[in-house]
Design a protein that fits this description.
With about 280 residues, the chain is an alpha/beta fold. It is built from 9 helices and 8 strands. InterPro entries: His_Pase_superF_clade-1 (IPR013078), His_PPase_superfam (IPR029033), PGM_Phosphatase (IPR050275).
């Protein structure tokens, strides 16, 4: 295998909306970016592609996105510095599994309002509400969110494995939401609890994305992870994070603390094989 860069998953939270600014929970509500949010993401694209060149556009193989307007708007603004030819080589996949947490009764509310509402319904008498564990009334449970994000991760890691075998550089960008991307990152890191896919909702074959299997193979998962506590990750509106792999190994998902900064492949210390007699 040649010295191709370690594959990366670059996560991007959409730019500012009126509700991200106010702190209101925004799940299925399809808000556009604010004027500030649009400018914010234009500046981000210029920074990572034009000014600092943190990301090589020719290394981007796929963009996966939530179906919400705020995420798809963000893609157009961030990728604006790319040439038409560069953009034509990137497959944009709309994936409903990347939608924001469905907040149910809490849609549009602020955290203190949610806490007050739950108290009025006699909930949380033994311990405070924790969305990562308790989910949302008439919305999604943490198991449901964990299952769909486990499916996305399986698809992306399968593509990375294929590209790595081909000796092809592969940065896959994921555009989504605050809770979704923090949850996604936590699962990438192996946090939470693992369950087998043996119940009805977890065994169901769900085709959530708009690409055929020749472009994005369907990956059937036999187990999934879900969170039971806050992962304590932060990602503000417009923020970018980078997930990758240790030792150039798809079976060792890792958080890239260097973020969007990159080293030439021959300088990556993680490429060094680990001697077996070190175990």
């Amino acid at each position: 295998m040649g010295h191709s860069p370690t594959p990366r998953c670059i996560i991007v939270r959409h730019g500012q909306t009126e509700w991200s600014k106010s702190g209101q929970y925004t799940g299925l509500t399809d808000l556009p970016l604010t004027e500030y949010g649009r400018g914010q993401m234009i500046r981000t694209g210029e920074s990572i592609f034009s000014n600092n060149r943190f990301i090589n556009p020719d290394h981007i193989t796929y963009v996966f996105t939530s179906p919400r307007t705020r995420a798809k708007e963000t893609i157009d603004l961030v990728l604006k510095p790319l040439t038409d030819e560069q953009r034509s080589k990137i497959r944009v996949v709309v994936d409903n599994d990347l939608r924001e947490w469905e907040y149910g009764d809490y849609e549009g509310l602020l955290t203190p309002e949610i806490i007050k509402l739950r108290k009025s319904r006699g909930l949380d008498q033994a311990r405070p509400w924790n969305i990562w564990r308790d989910g949302c009334e008439n919305g999604e449970t943490t198991e449901e969110v964990g299952l769909r994000l486990s499916r996305v991760i399986a698809r992306i890691q399968n593509l990375h494995r294929k590209h790595q075998e081909e000796g092809r550089a592969s940065d896959i960008m994921v555009f989504a939401h605050g809770h979704t991307l923090r949850y996604f990152s936590a699962l990438w890191m192996g946090l939470g609890e693992q369950l087998p896919c043996i119940t009805g909702f977890s065994k169901e074959k769900v085709k959530s994305y708009d690409a055929d299997e020749s472009e994005v193979p369907y990956v059937e998962i036999t187990k999934y992870r879900h969170l039971v506590d806050n992962p304590y990750f932060l990602l503000d509106a417009g923020g970018i994070g980078v997930l990758s792999y240790a030792h150039h190994n798809i079976d060792e998902p890792a958080l890239d603390l260097a973020g969007a900064f990159i080293s030439p492949p021959e300088e990556e210390s993680q490429h060094a094989p680990v001697p077996k007699n070190n175990y």
